[in-house]
# Entry
Amino acid sequence: MTTDAPRPGTVQCLSPSGMHRMAYVEWGAPDNPNALICVHGLTRVGRDFDRFARALADRYRVVCPDVVGRGRSDWLRDPNGYVLPQYVADMVTLVARLGVESVHWLGTSMGGLIGLTLAGQPGSPIKRLVINDVGPRVNPDGIARIGEYVGKPVRFATLDAAIDYITLISLGFGLRSRDEWREITQSVLKPDSDGFILHYDPKLALPLKAMTPQLAAASEAALWKFYDQIQCPTLIVRGEKSDLLSRETATEMTQRGPRAKLIEFAGIGHAPMFFDTAQIAAVREFLLQA
# Structure
């Protein structure tokens, strides 16, 4: 079996509204007991990690899921289920499918919050954690920016029009060429008649839009509680120009809970995408430390 190309898979998960299928791709030797799970941001997909996964596949079985409601995964019958507890439960099911005792974790934005929550559970399978450009306290300006485009119906007549749109809403990724933007655009499109639409369920924006100041405060308190319970070595990655993870919050994360190590990437906003070899090397070094 080839180990230098992604292998697709699915796993059945349970929500209060019934069963749903979560899709993933995996890289590296399928019998490698050293598993690394990479989880994407709110409107992205597991294929965001293709370059990173190729670079780590010599040491890990790298598994990159499409969180439910995105990519090749099913959409939930009840959109109120697009929340962290459901995502965490799905990842527990994925870990069980892999048949490993423990995992390492890289999570970008939403994927970082999923990892943070799972790592903060007693007996968590996560033994080394990378949280990419997010924390228990998120900047309201960043949430407002994301809320401006999430869930809005958009359709593109051409691939170039889609690339222009993804570039506009994702400038913080800091990609360097049209080809790189093309790569991350193609993975989040679905053919629609003679054009393209985005790959995710627009209703996943409903829980975000229903967020009140009171709910936001309760969510932050819960996330700090989980963060403070993390026992594994933890790395915080921050884009220097991030509008979601402030430097103050990132610094606080180095001083409490797992007392995470912090690295920042200059000239990047929300969020580093690990296309750059220096970004990949920094995370690889942390993950492979004895």
The CA atoms of residues 79 and 203 lie 6 Å apart. DSSP finds ten helices and eleven strands in the chain.
